[in-house]
Amino acid sequence: MIRKIYITITFFYSFITSCFENFFLRDRDIINLINKDGYKIIKLNEPVNLKFNSDQVVSVNNYMDKILLRQNQIYEIFDKLFNKSNLKKILYDFTGFKFNIGFVLAYVTKNIPVEKQKEKLYANNWHKDLPFSKNTLKIIIPIERIYEEDGGIEIKLDENKIYKMISDIDEVTVFNPNLFYHKAGNPNKIRKQIMLQLNPSKDWSYNYDLIKLQRKHEPKFPLIAYINKKKIPL
């Protein structure tokens, strides 16, 4: 019963926010190719090359660690992505939207043994991000090259076609987590990457308290969760 209520709430939230964004925030002369195709691989002019220390690593469980980014590291990531690699224009041309970066998470995932693979340990089961709009994007940034055995993200494009992320460090994968089933792959050893949550916005920006949010679960219902958040122009 509770599950049905939750699904109903997320359905109406997603429908209403998507309609608002499409009507007020999107350039309707541009076809949203990411929603149409499921994902895009974007080549960067300069890889992120994140360096971190052991004091930045916090264990979530036996199979996942968070890397708590420092302020200067977040600024450097944004500069490389959105300025030096011109990701603002690329994403606008792909979708017709400008975006607010609501959440940043750098993390390490480890191999899950067979007997635990059905447990929810780090988004390792097929799911859609229901409490988001149909225009929310996620960007997956590899910290190290991701080979087939490294268990990159998997996106179910239809019943017979699944994209499995294989990526150089100068490539990012952008996809819509609300429209397409996806899951974190199971690496043979470990996988290091960064995830950005992007929500349509009037202007390009990021939330002021991204540092603090790293210690929490990824916010759901972002239009509500971020309504009073201070936003910094990107």
Structure description:
The protein is built from 6 helices and 12 strands. It is of the alpha+beta class and 234 residues long. Strand 6 (154-158) and strand 7 form a beta hairpin. Strands 1, 2, 3, 4, 5, 8, 10, 11 and 12 form a 9-stranded mixed sheet that branches. It has a 3-stranded antiparallel sheet with strand order 7-6-9, with no helix packed on it. It has a single domain (2-233), classed as Jelly Rolls, CATH 2.60.120.
Examine the secondary-structure arrangement and name the CATH architecture: Sandwich
Q: End-to-end distance, in Å?
A: 42 Å
Which residues form runs of ≥5 with pLDDT under 50?
none
What's the CATH class label? Mainly Beta
